[in-house]
Write a structure and sequence with these properties.
Number of helices: 2
Helix content: under 10%
Number of strands: 44
Shape: globular
Oligomer: single chain
Largest sheet: 24 strands, antiparallel, barrel
CATH architecture of the domain at 36-245: Sandwich
Length: about 750
């Protein structure tokens, strides 16, 4: 039955009463302890020392020069007991010479406990096991921040961030020398990072960098940082970091890297009839123009080593967003972001999956996701003083009936005062073959983070125009947003307004919904319990209202829900939504047709995620209820088995059934299985199989990867797409690719 709006405040009040009871039960336990205030605590300082002798990277801090390095050993919990000292001792030392920055860390553990090593894969989810993390902000302004996360097995996740952590790029990879060692007293990390991998201004007489360090003890679900910061912040939020001094007398390297590749590919299958074996060569070049600006060039670009897209089930009348996976476009991608931004941890009403003015998948990929040949291109990204900028130009080649095109993007963003960023972007797509059509997108944005980071204001104004193939001009169409939010450790409130003209059309962007005005609001609390197995509660209410440009209601979503974080790292959520939809034109969902009309119905969902530290973990979600005059039932989930750090088995299922009046029931099922085998952190293989029941297609992707030197790879990849109904192979590609990084 439909949920009545007058019940929503009652549900929230009940959730607050439950939270208050749990908080009162917690107060006695913590009465004898006085945690520090993580938001107002002073920012600490640490000193690096110049190495006075050679350092051998072997995971043993026995080189004499380590004894002269100052020790960093004071860490403060983010969770579970916020503001309390870390429960296990951590000692970190920082050294440097003319070639490298060195980090040595001793991560102590109680006798009888071994660190949890969930995987050896590159760029793992380090929340699933023990980890050590670090953040460096060489310019001390949040514009170019480098972060590294390591697990005890030597797996690494490196991230480049900008805009004080609001924009992050996990595809950035650095070259370094690393060794970890697990022993009876815990584990040890020893690391050497070449100066060529870090951007800094060597002209400064005194080097003062932003720094933070993280220790994660997974069996306790404990996160602790050197510079105190609340759990809602990641360590790459540099404004919450401390200071690193002592890095004086640094000399920049030439910062020139060349990465040639050789590719051999054998296509086959019904859709590749007549295709011949290909052998190609290409080249990527990276050059540090200035300490803050980097030039990237690519020729005969190839992305054959990229993992295939995962199948998604679409039960809406709007397009799906598929994330970018190609390394060239992911590196420094954050600087080009323009549009709706958000993440899974916060409710903001819209994310880049709703609108982004620059969507790099429009370059070199057809609408179906098939690759198109890229002749080459270039990119300049980085910072020049207080200004961050990015310029990109790519040229594609003709492929079948798809003509050659040129793509240009220019982005600039500055921070005139701390917390305030202003920027602009220009995007152009132009036919360079026989066609004359072009498409232009441009916009300005302003964002403010103030009052200790609790207040966040975001806005943008964008427009599109262009020229049709016959030379006829395309009228200018507009889009805009304004939002304001407040998020402190307990309260959350957010309000959003967006408007998109009917024919707003960014040719290199993504827009989920046009011709509408969108109003959104949410209110929530986050009481921190740390009792009865519950770490944190999050009761909330939220409302979406979509109207057409004349004010007529199109969609209304009113939701009341509850999120729970458990002390073991698990999560759960439950929600109920009262939904109204106005359908002006019929649309089809997996063969079932939804007629035009007005629909008012109720649906709900529940999910539970097991702690990723378990050998067997996973997620299950159930949803359903009324659906456009009928009924919908959905169940999905995944099961992850960690058979030691060398073997991962991931199984997934997504089942959907729709019953509409007068029509046969329709189902949409997607099954997936992935097996990862890690012989070491540099030698690995994976096999991924997906089956889409509705289209009767099976996609298989098998990859072998050998990292034979830092940022140098050998890939062997087999990709196949099979029509299971006709038992025929549509596409099959066997590809071998060799790359070698050359540094000068």
């Amino acid at each position: 039955m439909p949920i009545h709006l007058h019940l929503v405040p009652l549900m929230l009040r009940r959730a607050v009463l439950i939270s208050a009871f749990a908080l009162s039960a917690t107060s006695g336990r913590l009465a004898a302890q006085t945690p520090i205030d993580l938001d107002t605590a002073p920012r600490p300082r640490a000193a690096a020392a110049r190495a006075v002798g050679p350092i051998t990277i072997d995971g043993v801090l026995d080189d004499p020069t380590w004894a002269a390095a100052p020790i960093i050993d004071e860490f403060w919990q983010q969770k579970p007991d916020a503001g309390m000292p870390a429960t296990e001792r951590t000692e970190v030392r920082i050294l440097f010479d003319d070639e490298h920055l060195y980090i040595g860390a001793e991560l102590m553990e109680q006798p009888g406990y071994e660190p949890i090593i969930p995987t050896l894969q590159r760029d793992p989810n380090t929340r699933d096991g023990d980890a050590f993390g670090m953040m460096f902000d060489p310019f001390l302004d949040g514009t170019t921040v480098f972060s590294f996360f390591f697990n005890p097995g030597g797996a690494v996740r490196d991230i480049q961030t900008a805009d004080d952590g609001r924009i992050n790029n996990a595809a950035w990879d650095a070259a370094f020398d690393l060794q970890t060692r697990v022993h009876d007293e815990g584990w040890t990390l020893e690391l050497a990072i070449p100066w060529s991998q870090l951007r800094f201004d060597a002209s400064r007489e005194e080097q003062v960098w932003g720094l933070n360090l993280l220790r994660r003890i997974r069996r306790k679900n404990e996160d602790a940082t050197w510079s105190p910061m609340d759990r809602r912040w990641q360590i790459y939020v540099s404004s919450r970091g401390g200071r690193l001094v002592g890095l004086d007398g640094l000399e920049p390297s030439r910062n020139l890297q060349m990465k040639p590749f050789v590719l051999a590919s054998q296509p086959s299958g019904d859709l590749q009839a007549g295709a011949e074996r290909e052998v190609e060569v290409g080249l990527d070049v990276k050059y540090g123009i200035t300490p803050g600006l980097t030039l990237d060039l690519t020729a005969n670009t190839d992305f054959s080593q990229v993992e295939v897209d995962q199948e998604q089930v679409n039960l809406t009348r709007f397009s799906l967003f598929f994330p970018e996976k190609r390394e060239f476009f992911l590196e420094n991608a954050g600087i080009f972001q323009f549009g709706d931004q958000g993440n899974r941890q916060t409710r903001s009403g819209a994310t880049n999956r709703d609108f982004t003015l620059f969507y790099s998948r429009r370059i070199g990929l057809s609408r179906s996701g098939a690759p198109l040949p890229i002749l080459g291109g270039g990119r300049v990204t980085g910072s020049a003083g207080p200004v961050s900028l990015g310029v990109l130009n790519m040229q594609t080649r003709t492929e079948g009936d798809i003509g050659a095109e040129n793509f240009t993007v220019a982005r600039v963003r500055g921070e005139p005062t701390p917390g305030l960023s202003l920027g602009g972007i220009f995007v152009n797509r132009m036919e360079t073959g026989d066609g004359r059509a072009d498409n232009r997108s441009y916009g300005v944005d302003a964002n403010l983070q103030a009052m200790n980071g609790y207040l966040l204001i975001q806005s943008y104004l964008a427009a599109t125009d262009g020229t049709q193939a016959d030379g006829t001009p395309v009228d200018r169409e507009m889009a805009g947003r304004f939002s304001v939010g407040w998020r402190d450790p307990f309260w959350e409130a957010f309000a959003l307004y967006r408007r998109f003209d009917e024919d707003f059309n960014p040719g290199v962007g993504f827009v989920r919904r046009r011709g509408m005005e969108h109003r959104y609001g949410t209110f929530a609390i986050r009481p921190r319990i740390n009792r009865f197995g519950i770490l944190e509660l999050n009761p909330y209410v939220e409302t979406h209202l979509y109207t057409d440009l004349s004010g007529g209601l199109q969609t209304r979503l009113q939701t009341a829900g509850m999120g729970l974080d458990f002390t073991d790292g698990g999560r759960a959520s439950i929600d109920v939504t009262d939904r109204y939809e106005r359908v002006d034109e019929p649309f089809s969902v997996r063969g079932a047709e939804v007629p035009a009309g007005r629909y008012d119905f109720t649906e709900g969902s529940a999910s539970y995620t097991l702690s990723g530290a378990r050998k067997i973990s996973g997620r299950v979600n159930v949803s359903g209820g009324e659906y456009f005059g009928g009924d919908r039932r959905s169940i999905g989930g995944s099961l992850l088995g960690r058979l030691g750090p060398q073997l991962l088995l991931d199984l997934s299922l997504n089942h959907n059934q729709i019953d509409l009046p007068g029509q046969a029931a329709t189902t949409a099922d997607v099954y997936g299985a992935k097996l990862d085998l890690f012989f070491s952190t540099t030698l690995m293989t994976s096999a991924f199989v997906q089956y889409n029941e509705a289209s009767e297609e099976m996609v298989t992707n098998v990859r072998f990867r050998w990292i034979h030197a830092p940022l140098s790879d050998l890939y062997v990849v087999l990709t196949e797409r099979r029509d299971t109904g006709a038992n025929t192979v549509l596409d099959r590609f066997l590809t071998a690719k060799f790359t070698k990084l050359l540094s000068f």
